[in-house]
Amino acid sequence: MTAAQTRRLRAALEARVLERAAAFRERHAPLTPDRMAAGVGFRWRTAAIAGRDGLLDAASRTILVAEGQSPRRQRFTLAHEVMHRLIEQDGDLLSDLHEAYEGAALERALERLCNLGAAEMLLPRAEVERALAAAGPNPRLIWELAERFGVSEPAAAVALVGALGPGALATVFGGRPLAVYFAFGAAAPARGTVLPEAHPLAAVLAAGLPHRGALALPGGARAEHAWARPRRGRVYLLAAGVEAAGG
């Protein structure tokens, strides 16, 4: 399979996952936690899960969601696990997924697709695209969409990256020293990655002023277009045209 064919197959996989998520939302709205779980023939409950946010227990037909998290985060985790079940039930989609990826890349791709599908369930792509058309790739959309749809900021970030397309990245930084709180998309830095004190994003927080333009990212990646804004001790970033180090 050529690189171009692989890209087309991966785009088709994403489109099919979004279709399944949208159909599920329409069929089972309003998407309360109970209705989401029941939509795939499961129940759900919170539990202590070491090192994981959620887990499908097929034997008991129960979706386990990590206890101690905010209700918004638990709702996204539940939607993510529901997407796992929906993908499992689609033999053609699973076959194409294994054709496009293998090994560790397969697991990463599956997790990404489940995140995108969960975001589509809770934040319809059409609404996210309308918000982007009105405001541009403004990082304030991360918190505004989260409030509007009652989801976590990471869920809103996933939805924005999905709508912005390949080469997009959404990241939230916080703490002192400033470190990655959440990142999703192209060349996403690992959670906890610390920014140097002299990094432009550290200056965004220190000065309370936004940054727009090209930007070097943690890990050596570079964004052709980046927009960062400070808010309540954090820095919110949306970027496009991201290329990994050496890319």
From TrEMBL:
Transmembrane segments: none annotated. InterPro entries: IrrE_HExxH (IPR010359), Rad_response_metalloprotease (IPR052345). Residues 57-160 form the IrrE N-terminal-like domain. This is IrrE N-terminal-like domain-containing protein. It comes from Oceanithermus profundus (strain DSM 14977 / NBRC 100410 / VKM B-2274 / 506).
